[in-house]
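May I ask you to review the protein record following this short note?
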Amino acid sequence: MLETMTTLDVRKLQPWQLEEAEAIWREFKGGEFQPFYKCAVDPVRIALDERLVRDMLGLGEDAVASVARLRLLLASEPSIYGGKKPALP
């Protein structure tokens, strides 16, 4: 099953993508992220995801919306939020 999982092969990124990845890292390296169970509402995490999808990967709004949906699904997962109240938009 793992062999069929879609993943990002960073060895195949173009030089401009690696430069963009470094710029994004520099921008967000000091950012204060909320706990992971709040990933669906964390403005820093949302901005990071959007920059990676749009600027590094060069994908469009459909991909941004898909990543937002994944954050929502993660935040809705009991194993992520544990005994806390889920933090959902």
Q: What stands out?
A: The mean pLDDT is 94.
